[in-house]
Design a protein that fits this description.
Helices cover 39% and strands 19% of the residues. By secondary structure, the protein is α+β, with helices and mostly antiparallel strands. A hairpin with a 6-residue loop joins strand 1 (42-45) and strand 2 (52-56). It is elongated, with a radius of gyration of 23 Å.
Length: 243
């Protein structure tokens, strides 16, 4: 039994050394052949024999064992019917709700505010307006609204006016629900720049992007019923009915 354990330990160590050597070879080959790939964060085997994942930040590429070929695209597990690339990116860009920079958000409380949700939105986003109007039917929730001006040149100006308003939450609701624009205002808008940097880091490329307390991330507008369902899943409560 002791001999078997020793042999298994040696075999595992050998495989680990081989994997490390393989990773080093791939890094070296790609850095020499493609200068833009000189700062690789991770190399690891994929479920497909002979194919390796190369990660730079949250960008994924695939290569062979010698770094002779590079593929930029999606890896699909046809048998399991799963997009492995999408699954991996979702894992890499997952947002820990507790780590969200809430000081850079507008806080909107409805009812007891017990349930939590965060959303990244652009004031020029039509889907965001639809989402906000549906959210009027969701009660007992705290919404952390991150202004995320990415859609048009004046998105930044409108975001600034809302962020600098005396009543930020009221200005946002007026703009999105009642089509009443905030008056011109100025103040420290570094929070908006931090929101953009945060979004870039976590690949938030569209608005609205909704993040629930359990880490679930939903791109695009969803209706009040779906919001209730996901809030319930996040808090293990039964979904409330909406008007």
């Amino acid at each position: 039994m002791k001999l078997t354990t020793t042999l298994l330990t040696l075999a595992a160590a050998t495989l680990s050394l081989c994997a490390t050597a393989q990773e080093a070879d791939i890094r070296k080959a790609l850095a020499e052949r493609i200068p833009q790939m000189d700062k690789i964060d991770e190399v690891r085997p994929t479920p497909m024999a002979g194919l390796y994942e190369v990660r730079i930040g949250t960008d994924l590429f695939y290569t062979d064992a010698k770094g002779n070929y590079v593929i930029q695209g999606e890896l699909i597990d046809a048998k399991a019917r799963r997009n492995l690339t999408e699954d991996r990116i979702n894992k890499l860009t997952a947002v820990n709700f507790a780590a969200l920079p809430l000081k850079d958000a507008i806080t909107i409380v409805r009812g007891d505010g017990k349930r939590k949700v965060a959303v990244f939105e652009d004031p020029n986003c039509g889907y965001c307006k639809r989402f906000e109007r549906d959210m009027q039917n969701v009660n007992n929730v705290t919404v952390y609204l991150f202004l995320y001006p990415i859609l048009s040149p004046d998105s930044a100006e409108k975001s600034r006016n809302i962020w600098c308003a005396k009543d930020k939450a009221g200005a946002w609701q007026d703009h999105m629900v009642r089509d009443k624009h905030a008056a011109a205002a100025s103040c420290d808008t570094s929070a908006l720049q931090r929101n953009l940097a945060f979004g870039k880091k976590y690949k938030i490329t569209g608005t609205p992007t909704v993040i629930f307390a359990n880490g679930t991330r939903v791109p695009g507008a969803i209706g009040a019923q779906e919001v209730e369902k996901r809030l319930a899943e996040a808090s293990n409560e039964a979904p409330a009915t909406t008007n």
